[in-house]
Amino acid sequence: MHRTHTDREYEAKLEDLRRRLIVMAERVDEMVEASVRAVVARDAALARTVIDRDADVDRWELECDELCLLVLARWQPMASDLRFITIALKMVTDLERIGDLAVNIAERAQRLAEMVPLEYATIPRMGEAVRKMLGDAVSAFVIGDAELARAVLRADDAVDEDYHQVFRALMQLMQSDPALIDRGIQVQSVAKFLERIGDHATNLAEQAIFMVAGKDVRHLHGG
Amino acid sequence: MTVAPPAPSVAPSAAETRPKLVSRQLEAWFGDNRVLKGVDMEVPARRVTAIIGPSGCGKSTYIRCLNRMHEMVPGARMAGRIELDGVDVYGPDVDPVLLRRKVGMVFQKPNPFPTMSIRDNVLAGLRLSRRKVAKTEAEAIVEKALRGAALWDEVKDQLKKPGTDLSGGQQQRLCIARSIAVEPEVLLMDEPASALDPIATARIEDLLHELKERYTIVIVTHNMQQAARVSDQTAFFLSGELVEMADTNTIFTSPGDRRTEDYITGKFG
After folding, report:
1. Which of A50, A107, B73, B231 is least surrounded by CB atoms within 10 angstroms?
2. Inter-axis angle of helices B168-181 and B118-128, to 10 degrees?
């Protein structure tokens, strides 16, 4: 049975915050998807649309923070409500950072679009992996599934490994052909940004576990 | 940089770790109405224990059983066992009046004796127990109790004025002074700040942090923020049962029982 708060105004504010977080996560995910597609398709115009959306993400972050402060000041939430508000304050920071990283990828996409193509098959795979992590972390938060959130923590190891593979492969490539250094550095940056997005998705998953189980699992798992 | 080693931790003695009050299968009735249904609970010494729960859950009845005030209500009775320092407070050798000196109570509405001065209000408990007190000793007791209740500085020049001349918050602290003048071991407080404004409430809450150094405190409150602010342990009562008791940080961040969670977050099904 879904239990709602007796105070409907309070219930509405918490629901508004939950909805805003989900919408923000969806928009940020779209930015990550578009930024990686812009790299692969060498589409500078698509990359531009990602960069233009960053201001929206910044605004949403401020609005969510404001809503959290308002609820804290007026209702003094307790127990799971208190955990929800405190993690919402952290989630918006992680989501905003993911938006920034999507912008960083889009900027690299613009530069790569001006260069001779370079094969980078691992990048789309990393993009899919971190988007799945982001989606699962947010789903875990929405449906209260700590197990799904724990799967995100495990998935981060694979993303880290992918990044190290890309790094090693690009180093070899650039050593063998210094003409590739410019492009290699751009691609390596994209891989690093994706790996960082994976870290932020991991943070979101840890917050989901805290929300569901009331246990702080930060810094307890490897990596 | 030199870092001083941490001070060696001192292990608490057995007397400090033993609960001050224990109830076992405590039942209470008003006539046929069973208001407590087998409450097992341990109140730690020199801590503030808050009891929260909706109206009619039995929390006030529970603390009134602890100092045998419940039995003073016509038609009221109890069953089960309550121990103070391991001694059955309902045992045949226990004098309820002496018990209430050890286990004092502060009520929701400040109730200074209206015909008495501030000074005489503080001494009222001693006089009721027919203890003779020399004048110089009485002055020392009045000052100590009023200081202990954080009221001395405000009333030291008007001790002969009627207690009822004071503000509501001051009257409540006067009642606390009256309770601690008889040097109790436990202070039971039944909604002690619910009739007070926020400043007077803050004074009482601030005082509780000092009082727990010397006394075991059990406070019944409807105000959950107050329970969260002042207590070390919180017990949640519902329909005459103890649902959950844990340290206050746990109760207000991650309670173990769904009913506690629903109550403190204000939910209905």
Report:
1. B73
2. 30
Structure tokens at B206: 């601030």
Task: Give the tokens for residue A169.
Answer: 């492969």
Provide the domain limits for residue B240: 18-111+185-265
- A103 by Cβ neighbours in 10 Å (0-12 / 13-18 / 19+) ranks as buried
Residue B138 domain-assigned?
no
Residues of A in contact with B260 (CB under 8 A): 79
Contacts of A216 in chain B (CB under 8 A): none
Contact between A214 and B254 using a beta-carbon 8 Å cutoff? yes
Structural domain count, chain B: 1
CATH number for position B229: 3.40.50.300
> How is B191-246 classified by DSSP, letter by letter?
STTTTS-HHHHHHHHHHHHHHTTTSEEEEE-S-HHHHHHH-SEEEEEETTEEEEEE
In this complex, the residue of B255, B268, B269 whose CB is nearest that of residue A79 is B255
Whether residue B145 lies inside any domain: the answer is: no
Is residue B122 one of the residues assigned to a domain? no
Report the candidate in B216, B249, B226, B251 with the shortest Cα–Cα distance to residue B237.
Answer: B251
DSSP assignment letter at A73: H
Tell me how far apart the terminal alpha carbons of chain A are, to the nearest angstrom.
38
Residue at B38 is within a domain? yes
Say whether residue A73 is in contact with chain B using an 8 A CB cutoff.
no
Each of the 269 residues of chain B gets a pLDDT tens digit; together they read 445 555 544 555 655 678 999 999 999 999 999 999 999 999 999 999 999 999 999 999 999 999 999 999 999 999 999 999 999 999 999 999 999 999 999 999 999 999 999 999 999 988 877 677 888 999 999 999 999 999 999 999 999 999 999 999 999 999 999 999 999 999 999 999 988 888 888 889 999 999 999 999 999 999 999 999 999 999 999 999 999 999 999 999 899 999 999 999 998 75
Q: Domains, chain A, ranges and CATH?
A: 8-213 (1.20.58.220)
